[in-house]
Every structure is written in structure tokens, then in C-alpha cells.
Write a structure and sequence with these properties.
Layout lengths: L10 H23 L6 H8 L3 H7 L3 H26 L4 H18 L1 H8 L5 H26 L6 H23 L7 H16 L11
């Protein structure tokens, strides 16, 4: 097993660095030219790595694209969690902080915006979009239940509302990035926060449901 240190890096650190380079290269290529630009050869050339390092981490291009989507979603969720932890403990402040952080994360790197805009570029990318929605919705439900405490809606209603709102928010952000809505980032943040608050308060608007 490879374990020696070269250039101050352990084997695991080198593997981590190579994986990150491949993911970054794929994100660059996707943002520059869309799905067709993301090929194994192009990714390896951009990352300055040979094929064997590609297969060290990914079975094929789809697996690499899945890693790009998963990493971006996980990074975004980490930013949102950090923002909510720093916000005042009332639900309105925390939800607004989450909305502001999530939108800020998308526009901080133009490549992320391109990923949002091209979310329906192909069945593969659309499947990744749905997986990201589920991951974000799950985190949103957990946050809402923690904030609402005993007043939290039941699990089914929480899941339904979170999935609908996360899907809608992503479509709204994509439309905003395309210039379809002439409004400020601040106003868009307020709209998103209000939508999220609606999910947190769904128990007051729905009759009891059977799960």
C-alpha cells in the first residue's frame, strides 16, 4: 500500500489533491462549454493528470459529474449552516441568513451559476439536479424541525414542502441569472426567505395528514 511521503505530502493527501483537480477541471469545462466539453481526455488535460489517476477516483464521466454536483451541494450546505449558526436564534433571522448564504454561494463563483443554468442539459445532469434537490431539501427539513421544535409539521408534510420549495427556488434563481427578473439580489433573498418560512410554518396551513 502506498504510504510514503513525497514533497511533504502523504499518499492520501496526493489522492485528495488529484481528485480535487479533476473535479475542478470538470467544473471549468462544464461552465465553459457545457456537458459535451466534459470528456475524460479534456478533464485529464485540464487537470494535468493521466488516465490512471482519473480511474483512481471515477469509473466514468457520469461518476465524475456526480462528484461535481455532490461536492458543490455539500459546500453550499456548509456555507448555509455556518451562516445560520452565526445568525440570531429566532426563526426569521436564521431562515433569512440561510437564504442569503445560499444565493451568495451560487453567485460567488460564475461556474456554479452555469451549473444551475444548465441543470436540465441532459438526463444525466437532470438526475444530478434532482439528487441535489433531495440533499438540500433534507437539510432544510432538519433545520426547520430544529427551529420549530414541538411546533414542527409532521415528516411527510415537511418533506413535501421542502422538495417543492427547493425545486422552485432553484428555478427562480436560474431565471434571475438569465435576466428574466429585474430585481436586486437583496429582494430575491427576501423572496426566497419568505418561501422558506412558508415551509417552516406549513403545519398551520394544512389539515392533519396520514403518513
Amino acid at each position: 500500500m502506498e504510504s510514503r511521503s513525497y514533497g511533504g505530502e502523504t499518499a492520501e493527501q496526493r489522492r485528495t489533491r488529484r481528485r480535487a483537480a479533476l473535479v475542478e477541471a470538470a467544473l471549468d469545462l462544464f461552465a465553459e462549454g457545457g456537458l459535451n466539453q466534459v470528456t475524460k481526455r479534456a478533464v485529464c488535460a485540464r487537470a494535468r493528470l493521466n488516465d490512471r489517476y482519473f480511474y483512481e477516483h471515477f469509473a466514468d464521466r457520469d461518476a465524475l459529474l456526480a462528484a461535481v454536483a455532490q461536492d458543490m451541494t455539500a459546500q453550499g450546505l456548509q456555507v448555509v449552516v455556518s451562516a445560520t449558526l452565526e445568525a440570531p436564534r429566532d426563526i426569521r433571522s436564521q431562515v433569512h441568513a440561510a437564504a442569503e448564504a445560499s444565493l451568495g454561494f451560487v453567485i460567488a463563483d460564475p461556474r456554479r451559476g452555469q451549473m444551475v443554468l444548465a441543470a436540465r442539459a441532459s438526463p444525466v445532469v437532470d438526475e444530478l439536479r434532482l439528487a441535489s434537490i433531495r440533499m438540500i431539501a433534507k437539510a432544510m427539513v432538519a433545520m426547520n424541525r430544529e427551529l420549530a421544535g414541538d411546533a414542527a409539521p409532521n415528516e411527510l408534510d415537511s418533506d413535501l414542502a421542502a422538495f417543492a420549495i427547493v425545486s422552485g427556488v432553484l428555478e427562480l434563481v436560474a431565471a434571475w441569472l438569465r435576466g428574466e427578473f429585474d430585481t436586486s439580489r437583496e429582494h430575491l433573498t427576501d423572496v426566497i426567505a419568505t418561501m422558506m418560512l412558508g415551509a417552516a410554518k406549513i403545519s398551520t396551513a394544512l389539515p392533519a395528514s396520514e403518513q
